[in-house]
Every structure is written in C-alpha cells, then in structure tokens.
Amino acid sequence: xxxxxxxxxxxxxxxxxxxxxxxxxxxxxxxxxxxxxxxxxxxxxxxxxxxxxxxxxxxxxxxxxxxxxxxxxxxxxxxxxxxxxxxxxxxxxxxxxxxxxxxxxxxxxxxxxxxxxxxxxxxxx
Length: 125
What we know:
Layout: H1 2-23, H2 29-51, H3 55-68, E1 70-73, E2 88-90, E3 99-103, H4 104-124
Helix pairs in contact: 1-2, 2-3, 3-4
Transmembrane segments: 5-24, 30-51, 56-73, 98-117
Keywords: Membrane, Transmembrane, Transmembrane helix
C-alpha cells in the first residue's frame, strides 16, 4: 500500500509538472527540455517504477528530490525555479531579488523514497 501511495504522489507531481511546462512561458527550448525531464518524465518514470517496486526508479526519484531540496531563485538562472508541488521556505535574504529556498516537500519525498528503498533492500536479504 505504501508503494502505491508514493506512486500516486509521484504521478500527481508529474501531471502538475506537465501542466506547468505546457502553460508557462519558459526562456528557451532547452529550458523546456530540462523542465520536461525534471518535472514530467522522471516523476512519471518514478511513479511507474515505485508502483512495480523497481529499485532503479526509487533511486532516480530520490536523486530528483534531493536535487530539488535546496533551490536557487534568480532571474538569471538557466533552470526554472518552479516546482510542481512545493512547501518552500527562504533560507537567505530575497531583498535583491534572488536567494535560496529549502523545500520541505522534496526532503520528505526523499526520505519516504529512501525508506521504501531500505525496506526493499531488507526484504531481499
């Protein structure tokens, strides 16, 4: 059941990510490719893989969420600072228009996926 719940969250993340990519004006085609892979393809693959309890999908999803846990928000950044589902808090001063956000949702997802990976590893041994 826990695999299915995490898989459902990842699927929602991918669907929301798809709508963000489709309806947001991004800077260039390369940014569209990066945003599509980060916010649509990897979460969708993760949702499928977690549902089927695939180890590589768990690891891939963990890498996605650990990379999203602390983000730079800057108008000159190549990467869009959007995230489909986020609970972010600033950890630096935004008075100059840029700073860092810590995303508690991404950290919680990372730990949830790590817990599933640990549980799966313990089952096999």
